[in-house]
């Protein structure tokens, strides 16, 4: 045995998911899946390891140089723990562009890594729902993606008043860049300032953008045609909480059309929950033509904060509905038969193996939040009737083995 | 745009999961979850990144030194991509030993990394169901864990004759080591040879073990008491396909009691599918006392091979049950309303946005394996009745919007 004891701490900036946390995580993922599958999106996946070169081309530079986990493997390959999923999905789509049947409606819930200082809403590892629609360059695709984003919020139990979609178009910014004769580098600098608009006083913002784009520069307050049209089509679909916002530009380089962010409207949590946009050029980094694409990513940490703020977190429930306690070991075989019957009938059951006193067995069930308990003793073995107790209200029901599963289904 | 095109290949030795592959992966995970939850196991999770020191103490040495992905982060911390889940779960349990309510029935389906030469059944990244029972040192815990392993196989559709559980106990080997005066190092060498018994001729095996343990050494052909008892208790629970096998020892150092492997009995795929055992000492590497534990890990790659060998792979189905084609754009609003109604009623629906010709829209549905299709045109808008076509057999049904979801539920 080692004398220097090991630390029980996880690696810095990542999370352990004990069953209660995992329950929330699974709830979030399940609602996400349900929402996107309503629109026919299918799930894909990939490894967290990617060749480092994948991120050199089109992500924001800050991300590639300072914020990734990149290392060299034993075969001298440069490997990165993916910081975002879009390059991966673009790679996968480009690799099979001839076999795949477009339009593709794809989603995934990968974990992503950023090397940054851990703080509220910012961990080194987070999970992110990625939803993408490939192969359609018309506005109906933009509308569908926004409707999916909206549906995800509703699926968590959010009301239309709890959040707001803010939308803009990169095209507007491109037009302005042309009008003010900005180089691509200047246009990018400008974008990064606009992206941080909410984080500085208005005066400072005005100074900064004029320093880059000239004293005459004003951020356009007029929505481009595509943005206007998307908003009006969504309103026809009863999605009203969408507004044009010229300060929405998004950090990544690769967007080419609409860009949007979903905002929490609660004054205590007023911030972007997630966002996305159109990126028609990314697949052309690989061999072959452009593939039009529009999509978004929604992270688990900000969603969880949102659910907490709005009282939408679910209450923990374990998988087991019933705990079978054993009054003495001579009854174990009968208890095992009962457990087998219930499991066959679709009830998840814990069978006691602690061999503790009956009261202690029931305490285990209660503290593990298993809602019902029954104790198997000589009497139950003889009669074949079991007293099923609801631990929350103490109410008991006497049932035969074959009646228990159906009864629990109606009670839960 | 870059002129040097990026490669579309994934990192070496890992897999991309296109929707068809992800469908199988999800099927495997779903069946695993269902099987273990029957016994009341609850899911936990953790990051793939762990402090490197976690693997120095108790894993086999080969694994720590040559087979892990270990690198130094920007803060000079040594980090490892977890090669197995047991040290992580032992760390998590040890960290909260005072708050947790034992016995713990925990499971997880983490991805694991090994730096090794990719070959059949051996990838650099795989997923592995980990099932563990903490806090009980009696034989009932061993029996339950083996029953869970058995249930997992049945949940995939395997018959009892398709596989076999082979069981041994580390205690038997310890007794022999004492009898033959073997040092701990020699005992370990011996174990590594026994673990590879099936991979060499019998003669060579005999030579090797005698070279380590002396000419008089014979591998015990008698099961220890605990193994005998576990087998007889499982047979009482109608689990018959379990046998004592003195060559089962498992690679990791940390096992202290029973060890077992589940074997495919098919002559074409006769090999270990997965395994585990009792490890009562692992938690004592951290501050505090021992925590008795028994568990196993079942990997996705070998399970998938098993399902393939036995014809148990599921047939791909996308999430969408119905593709709504649009005959001309004037009908889009009606088609959107139909889609909204069906989604509200629990049907997953793709609404066409390709704006292609009707025949091409139906081709998309067919090639994406969406089972039903309907086309919305002027007639349907007027009548409110929709022709729902089953693409597999061509049979059509004319239904009102409100009837479609129920009808599809019975047809699918």
What report would you give on this structure?
The structure is a homodimer of 412-residue chains. The first copy, chain A, is of the alpha+beta class. Chain A has 2 domains: 19-180 and 217-309, Bira Bifunctional Protein, Domain 2 (BirA Bifunctional Protein, domain 2, 2-Layer Sandwich), CATH 3.30.930.10; 322-411, 3-Layer(aba) Sandwich (Rossmann fold), CATH 3.40.50. Helix content of chain A is 36%, strand content 21%. Chain A has 13 helices and 17 strands. In chain A, strands 1, 5, 6, 7, 8, 9, 10, 11 and 12 form a 9-stranded mixed β-sheet that branches. In chain A, a hairpin with a 5-residue loop joins strand 16 and strand 17 (396-400). In chain A, helix 4 crosses helix 8. The longest helix of chain A is centred in the first third of the chain and has 19 residues, at 19-37. The radius of gyration of chain A is 27 Å and the shape is elongated. The interface between A and B is large, with 95 and 95 residues.
Q: Sheet with the most strands of chain A?
A: 9 strands, mixed
The secondary-structure element order of chain A is HEEHEEHEEEHEHHHHEEEEHEHEHEHEEH
Protein chains sharing the most extensive interface: A-B, 95 and 95 residues
CATH H-level name of the largest domain in chain A... which superfamily? Bira Bifunctional Protein, Domain 2
């Amino acid at each position: 045995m080692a004398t220097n004891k090991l630390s029980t701490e996880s690696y810095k900036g990542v999370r352990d998911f004990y069953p209660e946390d995992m329950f929330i995580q699974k709830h979030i993922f399940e609602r996400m899946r349900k929402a996107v599958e309503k629109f026919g999106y299918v799930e894909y996946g990939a490894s967290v390891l990617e060749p480092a070169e994948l991120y050199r081309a089109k992500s924001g530079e800050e991300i590639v140089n300072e914020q990734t986990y990149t290392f060299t493997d034993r075969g001298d390959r440069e490997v990165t723990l993916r910081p975002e999923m879009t390059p991966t999905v673009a790679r996968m789509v480009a690799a099979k562009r001839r076999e795949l049947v477009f339009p593709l409606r794809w989603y995934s819930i990968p974990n992503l890594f950023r090397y940054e200082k851990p703080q509220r809403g910012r961990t080194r590892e987070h999970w992110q729902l990625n939803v993408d629609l490939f192969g359609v360059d018309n506005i109906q695709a933009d509308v569908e993606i926004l409707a999916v984003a909206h549906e995800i919020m509703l699926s968590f139990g959010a009301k239309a008043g709890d959040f707001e979609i803010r939308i803009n178009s990169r095209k507007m910014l491109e037009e302005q860049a042309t009008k003010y004769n900005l180089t691509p580098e200047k246009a990018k600098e400008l974008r990064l300032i606009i992206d941080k608009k909410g984080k500085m006083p208005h005066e400072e913002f005005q100074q900064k953008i004029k320093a880059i784009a000239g004293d005459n520069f004003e951020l356009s307050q007029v929505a481009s045609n595509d943005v206007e049209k998307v908003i009006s089509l969504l309103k026809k679909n009863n999605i009203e909480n969408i507004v044009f916002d010229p300060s929405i530009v998004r950090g990544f380089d690769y967007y080419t059309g609409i860009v949007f962010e979903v905002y929490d409207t609660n004054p205590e949590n007023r911030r972007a929950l997630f966002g996305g946009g159109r990126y028609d050029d990314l697949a052309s980094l690989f061999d072959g033509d452009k593939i039009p694409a529009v999509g978004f990513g929604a992270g688990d940490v900000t969603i969880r904060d949102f659910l907490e703020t709005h009282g939408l977190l679910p209450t923990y429930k374990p998988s087991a509905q019933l705990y079978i306690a054993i009054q003495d070991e001579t009854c174990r075989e009968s208890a095992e038969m009962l457990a087998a019957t219930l499991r066959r009938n679709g009830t998840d059951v814990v069978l006691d193996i602690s061999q503790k006193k009956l009261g202690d067995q029931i305490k285990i069930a209660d503290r593990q939040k298993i809602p019902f308990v029954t104790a198997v003793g000589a009497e139950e073995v003889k009669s074949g009737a079991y007293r099923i107790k609801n631990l929350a209200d103490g109410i008991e029901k006497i049932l035969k083995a074959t009646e228990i599963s159906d009864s629990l289904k109606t009670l839960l």
